[in-house]
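Q: I'm building a small set of examples for a reading group on sequence design. Run inverse folding on the following structure and report the sequence directly after it, with nothing in between.
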C-alpha cells in the first residue's frame, strides 16, 4: 500500500462518528432531477444511519446566484419532503444550526483564514501572472509536448515581497503548490471501489481568485471539514475534483470524508440528460401534476435498486432498504414512460378525498364550475382516477362536467346534419324531462338510451353520436355511462336544449 493510501486510511472518519451528509446546490434556478437524486441519496443515507442531512448553498458565482433562485431550490426540496436539519431555514432562509453561515458567499473570512495558513506553511502562494501570460505559457508547453500546467515564477517568491506587491495594489490569486507532491492519490469510492489519481494530473491550482472568492474545490473542502461532513455522495462529474480536494485535506491534516460518485443520468438516446429534451426540473414535474413521492420513487431507482427488486415504494421502505452497496456504476436511463406509470400507481393509492384536494389547483386554473358536494367529489375521483397518470389529466377528464365551459365543437357538425339527429335529441330531451329524479344512474341512462333507440328508430353511430353531442358537445370522448351519472338532470336538459336549437 502506498504512502498516499496509508495517509488516506488514517484520516477517514471514525465508524463510531455520527453520519453527517450534505447537499450543496448552486442557486441558479429550479432543482434539476440530477440534483434531486443527489439530495435524495444523501437524505436516505442519513436517515438509514441515524445521521444529519445538511443543506449548504454554493453561491460564490455571484453573477448567476440569486435570492429568487435560492427560493426555487428550497421550494423544490420542500415539495419533495427532503427536510434538512441544518442550513437555510425553509421559510425565512435564515441560518439554522451550529455550523453556519451555510451560504458560501458569507464564509469568505473562513476561506481566507485557511488560505493564509497554507501560505504561511509554504503550501500555497500568491501568483501575479496575468491571463495573457498563463495562455502564452500553456501554448508553449503544448508545443513542447508537455502538460499545460501553470508553472508560476512566483511559486517560491519570499512572502514579504508578495505582500509588498499586494500593498502596492497588485492583484493576485492564491495557488496551491503541487510540484513536490510526487505520488499517487488513492481512495476507496463508495460506488466505484479503488480510484487512483497521479498527482501530476494537475498543476498548481487556484484556491482564491484575485477578488477573494474561493474556487469550488477549496471552499468545498473547507466547508465539509468545518461542518463535520463524514460522507459525500455526489455526481460522477466531480470525480476528478477529488484529487485536488485530497491534496488540500492532506495539507491541512484534516480527516477525509468517504466519497461516493453517483452514476450519470442519461436520456433515452443515451446522452446526458438535458432540459433541451423535455422536463428535467422538479418544478416542471410538479407543474405537470407528478406526485413528489412518485418522483422520489422514480429517481431512487436511477442508479440504485431494492434488494428484493421492488419498484413501487414509499419513503419509509426506501429508507430501510437503502444501502450504498447497491448503488450502480453504470449510467441510468431516464424513462419518462416508467415515471408516468409509477406516478399513476402512487396516484391510485391515494384516498379519494386527498386526491380531490390534489387535483383542485388544476381544475381551478381552468375555472371549472363543479359540485362542492364531498360525496360527488369522491364518486367522481373513484370514476376518473384509473384514467389519470398525472394530476393534470384531471383537466380533460372533468372538462365535460363543467357547465360553464359547455360548447358544441366543430367536429360535431357532421352528426348534427344527419336527418335523424333532430328526432334522436328530441326523444332524449323528452326522456330526461320525464325522469323522476335529479340524477341518472348508469342503469337508468342505458334504459333511456334503449328507449331513444326504439322511439327514434336508429342505432349505431346515428344513435350514440347525437346523444354524445347533446351531452358533451362532440361525437367522441369518455363513455357516457361514466359521465352522465356525475351530471344533474337539469344540466343535461340545458345542454340538450342548446344543441336542439342549433339542429333546428
Amino acid at each position: 500500500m502506498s504512502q498516499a493510501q496509508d495517509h488516506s486510511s488514517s484520516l477517514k472518519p471514525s465508524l463510531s462518528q455520527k453520519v453527517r451528509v450534505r447537499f450543496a446546490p448552486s442557486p441558479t434556478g429550479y432543482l434539476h432531477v440530477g440534483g434531486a437524486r443527489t439530495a435524495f441519496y444523501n437524505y436516505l443515507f442519513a436517515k438509514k444511519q441515524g445521521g444529519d442531512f445538511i443543506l449548504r448553498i454554493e453561491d460564490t458565482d455571484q453573477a448567476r446566484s440569486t435570492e429568487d433562485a435560492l427560493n426555487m431550490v428550497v421550494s423544490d426540496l420542500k415539495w419533495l419532503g427532503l427536510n434538512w436539519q441544518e442550513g437555510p431555514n425553509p421559510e425565512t432562509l435564515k441560518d439554522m444550526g451550529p455550523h453556519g453561515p451555510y451560504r458560501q458567499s458569507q464564509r469568505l473570512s473562513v476561506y481566507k483564514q485557511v488560505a493564509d495558513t497554507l501560505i504561511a506553511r509554504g503550501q500555497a502562494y500568491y501568483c501575479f501572472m496575468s491571463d495573457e501570460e498563463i495562455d502564452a505559457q500553456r501554448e508553449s508547453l503544448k508545443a513542447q509536448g508537455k502538460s499545460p500546467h501553470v508553472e508560476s515564477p512566483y511559486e517560491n517568491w519570499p512572502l514579504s515581497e508578495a505582500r509588498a506587491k499586494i500593498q502596492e495594489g497588485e492583484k493576485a490569486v492564491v495557488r496551491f503548490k503541487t510540484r513536490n507532491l510526487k505520488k499517487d492519490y488513492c481512495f476507496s469510492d463508495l460506488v466505484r471501489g479503488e480510484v487512483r489519481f497521479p498527482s501530476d494530473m494537475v498543476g498548481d491550482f487556484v484556491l482564491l481568485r484575485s477578488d477573494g472568492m474561493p474556487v469550488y474545490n477549496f471552499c468545498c473542502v473547507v466547508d465539509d471539514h468545518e461542518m463535520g461532513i463524514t460522507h459525500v455522495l455526489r455526481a460522477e462529474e466531480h470525480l476528478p475534483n477529488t484529487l485536488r480536494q485530497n491534496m488540500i485535506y492532506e495539507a491541512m491534516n484534516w480527516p477525509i470524508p468517504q466519497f461516493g460518485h453517483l452514476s450519470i443520468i442519461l436520456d433515452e438516446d443515451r446522452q446526458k440528460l438535458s432540459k433541451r429534451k423535455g422536463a428535467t426540473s422538479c418544478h416542471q414535474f410538479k407543474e405537470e401534476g407528478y406526485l413528489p413521492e412518485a418522483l422520489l420513487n422514480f429517481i431512487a431507482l436511477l442508479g440504485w435498486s431494492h434488494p428484493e427488486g421492488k419498484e413501487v415504494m414509499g419513503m419509509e421502505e426506501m429508507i430501510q432498504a437503502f444501502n450504498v452497496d447497491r448503488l450502480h456504476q453504470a449510467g441510468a436511463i431516464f424513462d419518462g414512460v416508467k415515471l408516468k406509470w409509477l406516478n399513476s400507481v402512487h396516484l391510485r393509492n391515494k384516498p379519494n378525498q386527498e386526491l380531490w384536494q390534489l387535483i383542485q389547483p388544476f381544475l381551478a386554473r381552468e375555472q371549472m364550475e363543479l359540485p362542492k358536494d364531498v360525496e360527488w367529489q369522491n364518486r367522481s375521483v373513484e370514476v376518473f382516477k384509473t384514467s389519470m397518470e398525472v394530476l393534470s389529466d384531471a383537466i380533460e377528464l372533468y372538462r365535460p362536467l363543467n357547465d360553464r365551459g359547455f360548447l358544441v365543437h366543430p367536429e360535431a357538425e357532421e352528426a348534427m346534419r344527419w336527418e335523424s339527429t333532430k328526432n334522436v335529441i328530441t326523444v332524449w330531451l323528452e326522456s330526461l324531462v320525464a325522469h323522476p329524479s335529479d340524477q341518472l344512474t348508469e342503469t337508468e341512462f342505458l334504459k333511456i338510451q334503449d328507449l331513444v333507440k326504439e322511439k327514434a328508430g336508429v342505432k349505431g353511430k346515428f344513435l350514440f353520436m347525437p346523444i354524445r353531442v347533446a351531452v358533451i358537445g362532440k361525437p367522441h370522448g369518455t363513455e357516457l355511462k361514466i359521465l352522465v351519472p356525475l351530471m344533474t338532470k337539469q344540466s343535461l336538459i340545458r345542454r340538450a336544449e342548446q344543441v336542439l336549437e342549433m339542429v333546428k
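Confidence is low (pLDDT under 50) at residues 1-15.
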